[in-house]
Predict the structure of L domain-like protein.
Amino acid sequence: MFLLRNQTGRPTSTSSPTISANDPSPSLSDIYNLLLQLTHTQAQLASELASVKQSLHTQSSIQDIHSTRLSFLETQATNNHRQVMHEIEKLQNSTKKHYTRLTSLPMDVVGRIMSWIDPVEVWQFRALSKGFRDLLSSNGFATLLVSRRVPTVDRSITRSKKPTLSDRIFVDTPAIYQVEYARKAYSHLISLCWNDYDGPKFNTSIPGAWLRHLKNLTELKWIYCNWTGPIPREMGDLINLKTLELSHNHLSGEIPSELWNLVNLEVLELNNTGLTGRLPPDLGKLTSLVKLYIWDSEMTGPIPSEIGNLQNLNELFLVLQENSEVRTVIPPELGRLTKLMLLNLASCHLVGCIPRELGQLASLRHMYLDENRLGGNVPIELAALELEECDLSNNAGLNFSFDAPAGWRI
């Protein structure tokens, strides 16, 4: 047991030194000073010893009790002094041996000391011993570690517009720390919108462990964050999402199948991401979609016919790479998207004819089919549309059986 002084100067008994979570992170010299303070407790122990000795002279009826207490205090004072001086010597010369021997202190004290170390660096000390591994991998330590770094969260603020320093620290930590961080910082949010064009970049993978506690989100925009690697499958658990934008990141791999379970999505933008693979038929499950943008990626055709199920779609903008195994054509099912106002399939390596079903798109105002390899006759039904912009240029095989309306680029 260590004796410390409280703010009034009176000694108070405690089993471990306490460092306030609101104090700035101490250096090893600060921990050294904390342990050095423990040496001052010898004065309190000496005072108590003197008091016990005096009691022995004045209260002989309880002599045996005080004698036992005296022996205990003398032994404790000796051990306390020896332990403190030993730890001080080690703190003056920080080595692996020093950290290993810190386990001679009570583990709750060790946990409090270690929780001041950077969350990424502290994980490395798991290799020192089983005791460190168990401590640093525990939920209790994760909670303490996060409490040191994250201020009290105002849960009435349900929107985050830019990443904080804590976000940048915990995004690279082990999953157990990420989970606790997201639980405390973000479980109450409904909107997480970071457009980090001018800010420092993450340069790491999307933290899948965070997503476990983001299930209240209706809007997730991570733009220009420089995320790398694949989209985590946990993204498919955010069933309340209405907007998902991951544009301008360095993602890889295919869109996980779990993403097509987000049936409440109204906006999906995956532009300039580096994603690969085909657009799957499961895209047709997202029947609430109003806006679908996937351009400047490595994704290939064909365009699945199930896209005709997205009958709430107002804007469709795709740029697809060439698929050497199968041709990419304009599916006639697009004619079912009667709410469509923007159709941009430029540079999609399209072949074949323009289907006359596009003439059914009465709401269409902007159509771009340029920079493809389309051929055959342009359907005369397109001339009846109230198009404000129409670009069919750079399709060498197209023929017109009618005079193209003024303003069309052919």
Q: What stands out?
A: The domain at 142-399 is CATH 3.80.10.10 (Leucine-rich repeat, LRR (right-handed beta-alpha superhelix)). The longest strand covers residues 191-195. Confidence is low (pLDDT under 50) at residues 1-26.
